[in-house]
């Protein structure tokens, strides 16, 4: 049942959203509305697999970045994260979300691809949360 995507296909999907990601990062109100849409969509996902379970942590990191609470992350990483979040929220995917179960395979593949790029940055964010008494989101 699992569909394979090439790194090139996944990279292309992230690149498509990079410009929009930069715009969101520069507009705190728009970003907050976007993150609310993301949270709403997460509630609709029937089964959140291991790869998609990282989304709340990534959303928290983005929210902290936009609020300027935490900015110790390369801009390329934050843009890749926001691009993946845009892909997840977008109804236009490689596989439409309306297809039961299979509709989220591409979303999981995109997140796995981005996670491989940013995992060390996310681990640093988790350490920062713990050191600063922030609510730590576990995945």
Structure description:
It is a single chain. Helix 4 packs across helix 5. The model has no long low-confidence stretch (mean pLDDT 83). It is globular, with a radius of gyration of 14 Å. The two termini are 24 Å apart. It is mostly helical and 139 residues long. Helices cover 64% and strands 0% of the residues.
Fold blueprint:
Blueprint: H1 7-16, H2 18-25, H3 28-44, H4 55-66, H5 75-89, H6 105-131
Helix pairs in contact: 1-5, 1-6, 2-5, 3-4, 3-5, 4-5, 5-6
Based on CA atoms alone, the radius of gyration comes out at 14 Å
Mean pLDDT level: 83
Helix content: 55-70%
In total, the number of strands is 0
The low-confidence runs, each spanning 5 or more residues with pLDDT under 50, are none
Shape: globular
Strand composition percent = under 5%
* N-to-C CA distance: 24 Å
Largest sheet: none
What string, H for helix and E for strand, traces the elements in order?
HHHHHH
Oligomer: single chain
Number of helices: 6
Structural class: mainly alpha
Please provide a brief summary of the model.
The protein has 139 residues and is mostly helical. The protein has helices spanning 7-16, 18-25, 28-44, 55-66, 75-89, 105-131. The radius of gyration is 14 Å and the shape is globular.
């Amino acid at each position: 049942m699992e569909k394979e995507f090439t790194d090139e296909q996944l990279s292309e999907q992230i690149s498509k959203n990079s410009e929009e990601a930069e715009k969101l990062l520069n507009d705190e109100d728009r970003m907050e509305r976007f993150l609310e849409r993301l949270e709403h969509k997460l509630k609709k996902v029937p089964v959140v697999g291991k790869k998609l379970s990282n989304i709340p942590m990534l959303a928290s990191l983005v929210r902290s970045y936009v609020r300027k609470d935490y900015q110790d992350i390369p801009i390329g990483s934050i843009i890749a994260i926001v691009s993946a979040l845009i892909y997840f929220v977008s109804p236009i995917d490689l596989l439409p979300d309306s297809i039961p179960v299979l509709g989220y395979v591409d979303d999981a593949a995109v997140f796995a691809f981005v996670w491989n790029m940013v995992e060390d940055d996310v681990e640093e964010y988790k350490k920062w949360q713990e050191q600063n008494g922030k609510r730590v989101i576990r995945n």
